[in-house]
Specification:
It contains 14 helices and twelve strands. The chain is of the alpha/beta class. The longest helix has 20 residues. The N and C termini lie far apart (about 55 Å). The structure holds pyridoxal-5'-phosphate. Pyridoxal-5'-phosphate binds next to α4.
Length: about 400
Amino acid sequence: MNTEKKYGSSTRCVHVGTGADPNYGSVVTPIYQTTTYSIPNVKDLIALYGHKKTGYTYTSTGNPTQRAAEIKIADLEGSEDAAVFSAGMAAITAAINSVVENGDEVIAQNDLYGETFRLFKTMPEKRGITSHFFDASKVEEIEDMITDKTSLLYLETPTNPLLKLVDIQKATKIARKHGVTTILDNTFASPMNQRALELGVDIVVESATKSLSGHHHVVCGAAASTKDRIRKIKSMRGDYGQTLDPFGAFLLITGMQTMALRVERMNSNTMELAKMLEDHPKIMRVHYPGLKSHPQHEIAKKQMHGFGSLMAFEVEGGIPAITKLFDKLELVKLATSLGGVDTISTIPCISTHGGLTKEQQLSMGITENLVRASIGIEDPEDLLEDYKQALAQI
Ligand SMILES: Cc1ncc(COP(=O)(O)O)c(C=O)c1O
C-alpha cells in the first residue's frame, strides 16, 4: 500500500502495515511464533547488533508480527513510530520512565485511571520524584505547579469514570512554553476520536486492551511518538521485559483492521443511548461529552472527532436499584474493562474505584448511584430496548 496516499480511515485500518506477506502472499499477517532468528553469518551478526542493518535477533526486542501492529498504530495516531507492549500499564510505565529522572517533578491529573494514579502516588518514595495533581477541568492550575525540575505533564482525557475533559491544546501549550514533555493516555477516546499528537502532545499511550484490539480478548498496550522517543521507550520495554507476544500482536492487528467501523457504530450507539437515558425518569444524570448538557461539550467538539463509547449515568435508588437493573438487563454484561464489541457495564464505587475511601470517591463525584457503561456494536434498537425493559422493572 502507498501509505503517502490520502486513503480514508477504514482503508488505512485494513491495509497499513499488513499488506500481503512477502514470503507466501498470505493476506493475513502471519504469527511469527518464534523467540529467535537464524542469522546467516558473523558479518550479519556484527551488522545487526551494531545497528548497521535492520532485522530481528530476539523477539523480546522485536518481531515481525509485533512490527506490523506498530506500523498500524503509528498510522492511526499520526506519529513517526510506535511500540507495542504486554499491557497498557507497561506502555505507560515505559513512556514515563523514558522521560522522568530520579529527583524530577511531575504534574498529573487527580482523576487518572486507578493504577496510573497509584504509580504517581508511590513514585516519590521509590525515586525521590515529586508529584503534583490538578483538576482536569482547571488546566490553568498547571502553570503555577511548574518548577525548573518539572519534566512531565501527564494527561488522560476523557477521564474515568465521569468523562471529564482536559483542554489538550491549552495544557500542551503551557507545557511546551516551559520545556515540559506531555504524555496523554488516549484509551477512552481512541485514535479514531482524538488525534492527541496533532493537539501538541509529545507521547500518546493507550491500553490497547480496549478499543484498539476491541474484542475483550487480549491485554496489550501501545505508545506512539517520534522515532527518537520510541527508540528510548523501546529500550525501557526491553529493560523491564514488557514485550507483546506474537499471538497477542496478531489479535491486536485483527482488531485494529475493523477499528474505524467499530468506533463509528459505538459512537452512534452511545449517543442514542445517552439521549434516551437523559430523558428517562429513573435516571438522575448522564455524563457523556456528546451531550449538550455536558459542561465541557464545547471542548469535546473542538478536540474530538467522535464522542466515544463510554458514558456514566446516575440511577435513582442507588445500589439496590442498580442491583435490580443488572439482574434484569439481558444483553448488557456486568464486567470491568471497556472499548470492546460487547456492551459491558460496571459500578465504579465497588469495582474500578472500590480501593478509594468514601471521602475520596465523593470528592471525585463517584456516588452509589453511578454506573459506567462501555457501549458495543450491537443494533441500537436492541440496546435501547434492553435498557428500557430493565429500567421499567426497577
Ligand atoms: C484509561 C486507562 N489507562 C490504562 C489502563 C491500563 O490498561 P491495561 O489493563 O491494558 O494495563 C486502563 C485499564 O482499564 C485504562 O482504563
